[in-house]
Amino acid sequence: MTSKISCFDHAVFRRALKMTAPVWILYTLYELLLPLRLFSFCRGLSSGADNYIVQIEKTLLSYARFNASIVPFLLGGLLAWVLFSWLFRAGTAYFYAALPVRRETLFLTNYLTGVLLCAAPALLSSLLLWAVGAGFGAAAFVPAMQVFAAAMLGFLLFFSFAVLVCCVVGQMAAMPIVYVILNFTFFVLEAIVRHLLFTFVYGMPYSQSSTMQSFALHATPVLGLLQGGFRVATDWAERDGMYYMELNPQLEGWGYLGALAALGLQKRQYENELNEKKHAILASLSAGDRSYDEFIDAYVVDKDGRRVDGEDVFALLNDLPGTFEAGKFPIFEARDGRVVIPVTGMGLWGPVWGYVALEKDMNTVAGIIMAHKGETPGLGAEIATPKYQANFVGKTIFDGDKFVSVTLRKGGAKDPAHEVDAISGGTKTSDGVTAMLYNSLENYLPLLEAKRNATAPAPAEVSNEENVENNE
């Protein structure tokens, strides 16, 4: 045994390793799957593809969100439950109390063991991710280390909380239940309160509901980190005067991950999301060099196409399906007469969304920006690439006076005016995008038809002499 004033005891450490062996072995296997997954993605990615290096780095960084939320939530809870199980049984507690080891040493040894069991596999995985990325020509060291840092910060958050629950509860069966309940308390309570308010409070403003939901997500880290609190962002550069290329992929949300209790973080995150939405709207118009506030007029219309005042357009975008169900339809009108319509739907693995820009005739697609939450890289995820989105430019959503939208057709477009080629190997995503475009654009038909009629040329006047000639 080490001295009584030591902060680390080797005998306790070896015992902890044996007790937690199934947990850290499974976690190590999971971490080793990530480099294999990246290797498979890189092999399937054509080296001549647009943004080849950027796509590799983005895919690598995308692992950080899951590694900072779901994985540490499960791993931290399990390790705390096993490492501090001696608190739950009187016999084991007496055994440790009889050892010539200080209580501080006992606690710190178990705590540091948990940290080490997370850090070692995570670091090994990150180094292998770097090696795989470097093997395919990507400068992946910094992204790989960001994945490691995200995993450790997330683990420290959930593991520390789980240890606290162990110390407070002191009952083996109850600890996991209390741990899960406390992690989701804010989210569940917010959902209940929101449901009650919408049921019994007439005219409950949607902006208040959005604020409540945002607060609940921030107070529920395992969900907040998954749903935008920690995400991959890129810079954009103009290409050929029309398309935009992604550059410098990076992780955003370090402040949220490192200091969840910071009060000023919510405003900063909202501003980042707001700027991203503004940029996407301008990009759909190929107007990335313009000022959003000077070039775009944002407003809301009802189901009849009439303008509705007093609505926060960007707050409505936070839950666009709910906004559509409430009969509110945000729209962005450019100074040159073009409009941008937000669209939303479901892909194969989760939500897909975007912005469709229409020319002044309210028929021709001027541009489209699409994004997704979890479509398959190299397949359904292609909807988010500028190369694929360029296929929509010039398509029309009306066939004469009939609304037909734009269809993604498997096997190749047969109607060049209203169809584009579906994604090879991404049939479900393609079908989801087709439904998204039709269902979302259909909500705006009264407004589009009114604008089309307003811009349609007036019929030419026919003279009396021409009428006589026609009659003859």
Question: What does this protein look like?
Answer:
It is built from 19 helices and twelve strands. It has 472 residues and is of the alpha+beta class. Strands 4-3-5-6-7-8 form a six-stranded antiparallel β-sheet. The radius of gyration is 28 Å and the shape is elongated.
Q: Note the beta-strand portion.
A: 5-15%
Q: Span between N and C termini?
A: 118 Å
State Rg. Answer: 28 Å
Q: Portion of residues in helices?
A: 55-70%
Low-confidence stretches: 1-5, 260-269
Outline: elongated
Q: What structural class is derived from the secondary structure elements?
A: alpha+beta
Oligomer type: single chain
Give me the side-by-side strand order of the main sheet: 4-3-5-6-7-8
* Mean pLDDT across every amino acid position: 80
The biggest sheet amounts to: 6 strands, antiparallel
Q: Count the E strands.
A: 12
Total of DSSP H or I helical runs spanning 4+ residues: 19
Give a quick set of tags describing it.
single chain; 472 residues; alpha+beta; 6-stranded antiparallel sheet; two-stranded antiparallel sheet; 19 helices; elongated; disordered N terminus
Per-chain topology:
Elements: H1 10-19, H2 21-44, H3 52-67, H4 70-83, H5 90-98, H6 103-135, H7 141-169, H8 174-200, H9 206-218, H10 221-229, E1 231-239, E2 243-252, H11 254-258, H12 265-284, H13 292-295, E3 296-301, E4 307-308, H14 313-317, H15 320-325, E5 329-334, E6 339-346, E7 351-358, E8 365-372, H16 386-389, E9 398-399, E10 402-403, E11 407-409, E12 419-421, H17 427-442, H18 445-455, H19 464-471
Parallel strand pairs: 11-12
Antiparallel strand pairs: 1-2, 3-4, 3-5, 5-6, 6-7, 7-8, 9-10
Helix pairs in contact: 1-6, 2-3, 2-6, 3-7, 4-6, 4-7, 6-7, 7-8, 8-9
